[in-house]
Write a structure and sequence with these properties.
Length: 408
């Protein structure tokens, strides 16, 4: 029996990774025979339109990059998850209901070294006629400076549900604290202790059962934040960073997410890990871009061929049993890694890749060296940078991707 799987791409403004994904899938010409059945693949960009809740979608798997801000596709994703068993790389219920706050709470209970974090009330009240009465009766006055002193300077103020570094402020003293709070308006904010004097900022991008840990510098411009540095973490620390990222993902049922950690000595502090629409831009990832596209393709194919079901429900008890135990930190990490590897079917995935996807690396290499990829690179640069910088950045990215290709 032959099955043609349709992979749906739910996109906003992105043209880089999606174009590369489509090109790689086309070039790979996948024709996989598993348990006597033949599997072939096509991809399609999903359009937004009215939908009948009882309509059956044509897609076997959807990669969502849009529903975090656009409500029409958000509700469509919930419908196809609940009614049609379409595979989604991120659980739409935990993703769309998720904020940094809940993610911090869950990982604190698991025993990770989350910096001291407080939630503070809005500076400006929400527009609700009931607020004044409720606030008069029940809201306790509080001393913002006292909270900050309890945490200790320096600290960060950041939105409890934010992303993309919007509204994040480093605060060194009382004046900066009051200024940031005044400017926060109606946004609900966290105050979080800084990990001052950290050695390394690591950002790990996980796609299914694979993780790439990259050295990250948020103070640099976008094109230079990810550093090409392969030995910046001790093996034991690097393994802990991977474990933390995969634990977050398996816990919340996210399969396409990034995790930010600060490393100080041998201590690893997770600071941001609810990024289930992570940055996979060619402009940002550059050298690591081919890995991300390959991993996304391989995981999508594995899920479709293996019949993997997207688990909507969470299994919190198995995680909390470990987190609430008297195990040492290292023992907990080992258990979390085992639970995460089980969730991601890591052994099955790796065996599947060896049997059916061994040629993907060579196909990607040929694509990156092709005129087709170079045209994509040029289009992305021209769409991102001002005209007077086009030539400079075309050569910049060509050099980085050539370094990747030459290192294969």
């Amino acid at each position: 029996m032959a099955t043609k799987h349709l992979l749906g791409l739910l996109l906003g403004t992105e043209e880089d990774w999606s174009g590369a994904f489509e090109a790689l899938l086309s070039r790979a010409r996948l024709d996989i025979v598993e348990h006597g059945d033949r599997h072939q693949f096509e991809s399609e960009r999903i359009t937004i339109e009215p939908f009948n809740l009882r309509a059956h979608p044509r897609y076997d798997l959807v990669i969502d990059r849009l529903a975090h801000w656009y409500f029409v596709p958000r509700e469509w994703l919930k419908k196809i998850a609940l009614m049609n068993d379409v595979y989604l790389l991120n659980n739409p219920f935990t993703f769309q209901a998720m904020e940094k706050h809940a993610a911090y709470c869950a990982m604190m209970r698991l025993g990770f070294k989350i910096p001291d974090t407080w939630l503070i009330p809005h500076k400006n009240p929400p527009h609700n006629e009931r607020f004044a009465y409720t606030a008069e009766r029940y809201n306790q006055p509080f001393d913002l400076e006292q909270v900050a002193q309890t945490i200790g300077y320096p600290l960060y103020m950041k939105p409890f549900d934010g992303g993309a570094w919007v509204g994040v402020t480093r605060i060194a003293d009382r004046d900066a604290l009051q200024k940031a709070y005044n400017e926060s308006g109606e946004r609900l904010m966290h105050l979080q202790a800084a990990v001052d004097g950290f050695d390394v900022f690591a950002r790990s991008l996980s796609i299914g059962a694979e993780t790439m840990v990259m050295r990250f510098d948020p103070d640099r411009p976008q094109h230079d934040r990810y550093q090409v540095d392969h030995g910046f973490l001790k093996p034991s620390v690097g393994d802990e960073v991977v474990t933390i990222g995969r634990t977050v993902n398996a816990f919340f049922r996210w399969e396409f997410n990034s995790c930010e950690t600060l490393v100080k000595g041998n201590q690893v502090y997770p600071i941001d890990y609810a990024n289930a629409c992570p940055d996979v831009s060619l402009i940002s990832l550059h050298y690591y871009f081919p890995w991300a596209v390959k991993a996304l393709l391989k995981w999508s194919v594995f899920c479709a061929v293996s019949g993997r079901r997207m688990p909507i429900n969470l299994d919190l008890l198995s995680w909390f049993t470990v987190g609430d135990s008297d195990m040492t930190y290292d023992e907990r990490l080992g258990e979390y890694r085992r639970l995460a590897d089980d969730y991601f079917q890591r052994d099955d995935y790796e065996e599947f890749c060896v049997r059916h996807l061994g040629a993907i690396d060579e196909v990607m290499l040929e694509y990156v060296r092709s005129n087709e990829f170079d045209r994509l690179l040029v289009r992305v640069v021209h769409a991102t940078f001002p005209v007077h910088e086009h030539e400079q950045f075309v050569e910049h990215y060509r050099g980085l991707l050539k370094a990747w290709a030459d290192g294969r």
